[in-house]
Design a protein that fits this description.
mainly alpha; 6 helices; about 80% helix
Length: about 160
């Protein structure tokens, strides 16, 4: 038996629908995932406030550009709000949780790359700060991944 062009078209269409459905799949976050997302939101919000309000003094202590610290602080405030909303929802798109996990992993990696790139020349305190926050963010990404694996899929 041979596939007709119509059979292949239907198969491609069905594959596309299945792919879109898996991307938009919703989950019921485990209690663990919700707690980790809320902890991430709290840490990001606190760090965002610290960096946004004290960018000048921190720039002198850390040897990092004040404009960069201010921009990172503002970004973290928005990120904290987004993550808090995810942590408070009873159901969320799986893709959005993955976005937070991958974003955190990239943040941790980029933080280390910032130090070895030569783009900045931080003080010892600044280098320690960048490494410490990268480790915390990497840990949050790992915990969020664990929480996601414990979460149930929402029936369609």
């Amino acid at each position: 038996m041979h596939d007709t062009p119509t059979d292949r078209t239907v198969a491609r269409r069905n594959a596309g629908v299945a792919a879109r459905a898996s991307v938009m799949e919703r989950i019921i976050p485990s209690d663990f995932l919700r707690r980790v997302l809320l902890a991430d939101a709290a840490c990001s919000g606190a760090m965002g406030l610290l960096l946004a309000l004290l960018a000048g003094p921190l720039a002198r202590w850390f040897g990092l550009p004040a404009a960069m610290l201010l921009q990172v602080g503002v970004f973290l405030l928005a990120f904290a709000g987004f993550v808090a909303v995810l942590g408070l929802r009873r159901a969320s798109p799986r893709l959005l949780v993955w976005l937070v996990i991958v974003g955190n992993a990239l943040w941790a990696l980029d933080s280390v790359l910032l130090l070895v790139s030569g783009w900045v020349a931080p003080t010892v305190l600044g280098g320690t700060f960048v490494v410490a926050q990268a480790l915390v963010v990497a840990l949050l990404a790992e915990l969020e991944y664990t929480g996601l694996s414990r979460s149930a899929r929402l029936a369609a």
